[in-house]
Q: What sequence folds into this?
């Protein structure tokens, strides 16, 4: 089969589209022929050597996609079943072996494109505003990187719960994307963004900040009210400064860490959370922008497109 691979870490030019052996499935596994594969910043971090990788070189990144079962050693799935997955390694290939407990059946009204666009980012947004911090009606929520994939969905989920939402973006051009997702305010991350938030909240600060940037963590605490919460779930802008526990004590503020894999702990959790997400989309509560598609063989170009911030839509790799 063909796969998007790399044997050393570095910029996008380390990527190679090459022939590799087909996966050999084991008991309780199914072989999926990928129809669409989700590209995420985590794949860029893995290419650079910043994130954990499974296997030996040539490495195959990717953990999210959707396709059709072409071989089964599972009692739960048969050839022809439509399956999505979100935490299975080696996705950037024509075929992938999936343990049946990690397979998510795709509803009839959901196509492969949507299934591979929504799971990782949607399930992340879902746990953030329900499990990490249960957003309540009337609260003020601040979301960093709100024009990104997780941010767009998180805005819509928080609004559906009755919150007032402030979205941040470094790009002035992407403020419209934030407002299109029905955020109440969109603010550019520049020299005076913190003062704008303080003014909006009448000096009190926000109830909760969802921070995926990392380097902004202390700033997030500055705009959080006493007894408020900061949810830290990413480091797209670099590592955060160490947090002084005395600051948390003096202000009664709470720091919460968040990682999706802490919640996708078993088959029931995975399928129930995915079903809830698909239902939210079907009912119009969450709307997803049309994805940008690249051929799998164009992986280098897709990585550059994502890394350079050229799109506010999900980027998909489509096997040639």
A:
């Amino acid at each position: 089969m063909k796969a998007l691979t790399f044997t050393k870490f570095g910029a996008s030019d380390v990527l190679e589209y090459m022939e590799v052996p087909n996966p050999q499935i084991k008991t309780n596994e199914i072989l999926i022929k990928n129809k669409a594969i989700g590209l995420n910043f985590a794949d860029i971090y893995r290419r650079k050597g910043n994130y954990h990788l499974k296997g030996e070189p040539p490495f195959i990144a990717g953990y999210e996609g959707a396709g059709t079962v072409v071989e089964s050693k599972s009692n739960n799935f048969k050839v022809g079943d439509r399956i999505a997955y979100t935490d299975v390694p080696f996705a950037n290939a024509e075929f992938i072996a999936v343990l049946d407990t990690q397979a998510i059946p795709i509803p009839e009204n959901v196509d492969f494109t949507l299934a591979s666009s929504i799971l990782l980012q949607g399930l992340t947004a879902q746990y953030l505003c329900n499990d990490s911090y249960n957003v309540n009606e009337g609260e003020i929520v601040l979301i960093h990187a709100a024009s990104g994939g997780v941010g767009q969905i998180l805005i819509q989920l928080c609004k559906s719960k009755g919150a007032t939402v402030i979205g941040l973006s470094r790009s002035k051009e992407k403020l419209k994307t934030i407002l299109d997702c029905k955020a109440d305010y969109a603010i550019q991350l520049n020299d005076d963004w913190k003062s704008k938030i303080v003014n909006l909240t009448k000096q009190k600060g926000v109830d909760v900040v969802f921070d995926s940037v990392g380097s902004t963590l202390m700033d997030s605490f500055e705009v959080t009210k006493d007894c408020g919460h900061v949810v830290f779930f990413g480091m797209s802008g670099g590592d955060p400064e160490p947090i002084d526990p005395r600051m948390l004590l003096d202000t009664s503020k709470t720091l919460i860490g968040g990682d999706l894999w802490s919640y996708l702990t078993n088959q029931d959790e995975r399928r129930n959370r995915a079903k809830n997400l698909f239902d939210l989309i079907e009912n119009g509560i969450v709307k997803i922008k049309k994805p940008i598609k690249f051929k799998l063989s164009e992986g280098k170009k897709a990585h550059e497109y994502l890394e350079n911030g050229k799109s506010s839509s999900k980027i998909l790799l489509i096997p040639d």
